[in-house]
Amino acid sequence: MSKRILLLPGDGIGQEIIAEARKVLDWAQANGAELTIDEGLIGGTAYDETGTPLPEATITAAKSADAVLLGAVGGVKWESLDYAVRPERGLLGIRKALDLYCNLRPAVVYPQLADASTLKPEVVSGIDMMVVRELSSGIYFGEPKGVETLADGRKKGYNTLVYHTDEIERVARSAFEIAMKRSKKVCSVDKANVLESTELWRDVVTALRDAEYPQIELSHMYVDNAAMQLIRNPKQFDVMVTTNMFGDILSDAASMLTGSIGMLPSASLGEKYALYEPIHGSAPDIAGKGVANPLATILSASMMFRYSLDLGAIADKIDAAVNSVLDQDLRTADIMQAGKTEVGTAAMGDAVIKALG
Ligand SMILES: NC(=O)C1=CN([C@@H]2O[C@H](COP(=O)(O)OP(=O)(O)OC[C@H]3O[C@@H](n4cnc5c(N)ncnc54)[C@H](O)[C@@H]3O)[C@@H](O)[C@H]2O)C=CC1
Ligand SMILES: CC(C)CC(=O)C(=O)O
Ligand SMILES: [Mg+2]
User: Fold this and answer.
1) Which of 73, 109, 154, 287 could be a cystine partner for 127, CB 3.0 to 4.6 Å?
2) pLDDT in tens, the chain (357 residues)
3) Within a domain: residue 189?
4) How much is the CA Rg of the chain, to the nearest whole Å?
5) Which of 48, 115, 252, 319 is catalytic?
6) Closest to 68 in 3D by CA, of 319, 307, 349
7) Helix 43-50, helix 87-97: angle, nearest 10
8) Where does the source fall among the domains of life (predicted)?
9) Number of folded domains in the chain?
């Protein structure tokens, strides 16, 4: 039966990178994958057309798809809008609507790019770690929040970091299950020394390990130390599990081990739905220039074929094609190295298609 994919290009380079991922989907279709591909609106582009960054039609289409592949949202044009209708609210909204609580962000250092990192090759080579980020709760969603004017004229801006036992437990279980197939090592990152919500996080993660995953070697680290350790000695980590905001920040940091944020794909998973997207944003500084790296999005498509479409053989081919274009010394500007050939977004996408054969 045909698998239904919903593409949500979004804003800025989202449009450019999804166009390259679309070439890969078209290739898969031409090579036997039965796919029905639709496109929908999200983010600033959706706001401009419909007055909301997350139209009902997008939620409905996402719920009837086997998987969603998203580009990125946001941009300077929409920064002065009320928070309720900002592009980013569209992304948070779809994560909530689909209950995508588990965000997998694999940071893999390709051997061809070990010296593209700003860190020493010996520090990063061989890295293959997984950041498991809680995605549908935490401070990005907690109530109360807002900006108020106080009686004395000062303004008060506030957000709330809330976690419930079940929200922690389900993402911790995902992390432990992943770790059972890897090194059986999990580092849980929190700020339990000062935040009660993450003291609960630590307690729940520990209790689950004790009760159901005694084989897992669990460690705990404060987020400030984790940020430092990621740069000092990243190979100490295999699976890292953490809150929504800490995972957001630490995965951007981890991306630089690989050479560029343009190399990191992600899968956002719930019990019923799944959405795939690069970890980066809409990159207004390079949008429209045709220089964005499409590989994170193409690798996100690969994760989609593997996890949601039951087409692991196609995922293997996409992964091999990405390796092949790097072997051919083709580089977008963000991963450019001396002696290599610089190519733009579309040329990189075309090279992947050529490598796919
Ligand atoms: N998932 C999403 O849709 C996300 C959206 N955003 C939104 O994106 C906008 C820009 O945010 P920033 O903080 O600048 O983060 P960003 O991730 O868009 O860009 C950060 C830096 O990385 C570079 N970069 C990002 N992706 C790249 C790629 N594929 N190839 C080459 N270089 C790449 C950009 O040029 C920029 O210098 C904001 O409106 C923000 O809210 C930010 C992060 C995630
Ligand atoms: C809207 C933001 C929370 C997006 C972001 O930075 C991310 O998911 O990495
Ligand atoms: Mg982010």
Assistant:
1) 109
2) 899 999 999 999 999 999 999 999 999 999 999 999 999 999 999 999 999 999 999 999 999 999 999 999 999 999 999 999 999 999 999 999 999 999 999 999 999 999 999 999 999 999 999 999 999 999 999 999 999 999 999 999 999 999 999 999 999 999 999 999 999 999 999 999 999 999 999 999 999 999 999 999 999 999 999 999 999 999 999 999 999 999 999 999 999 999 999 999 999 999 999 999 999 999 999 999 999 999 999 999 999 999 999 999 999 999 999 999 999 999 999 999 999 999 999 999 999 999 999
3) no
4) 20
5) 252
6) 307
7) 100
8) Bacteria
9) 1
Task: Answer whether 245's CB lies under 8 Å from 139's CB.
Answer: yes
Distance CA 171, CA 6 (A): 25
Which residue's CA is the closest to the ligand 1 atom numbered 27? 262
Question: Ligand 2: does its nearest atom lie under 6 Å from the Cβ of 94?
Answer: no
What does the block give as tokens for 147? Answer: 């900006």
Q: What is the ipTM of this complex?
A: 0.99
Is the CB of residue 66 less than 8 Å from the CB of residue 57?
Answer: no
32 located within any domain: yes
Count Cβ atoms below 10 Å from residue 302 Cβ, excluding itself. Answer: 26
SS3 140: helix
CB-CB contact of 240 with 131 (8 Å): yes
Is 25 in contact with 301 (CB distance < 8 Å)?
yes
CA 248 – ligand 2 centroid, Å: 6
What b-and-e string marks burial along 212-222, b requiring 16 or more CB atoms within 10 Å of the CB? ebeebebebbb
Q: Is 272 a catalytic residue?
A: no
Q: Would you mind telling me the total number of residues written for the chain in this entry?
A: 357
Give catalytic status of residue 47 as yes or no. Answer: no
Q: Do the bridges between strand 3-10 and strand 67-72 make them parallel or antiparallel, or are there none, so unpaired?
A: parallel
Cβ–Cβ under 8 Å, residues 131 and 107: yes
In terms of residue numbers, what domain contains 70? 1-113+258-357
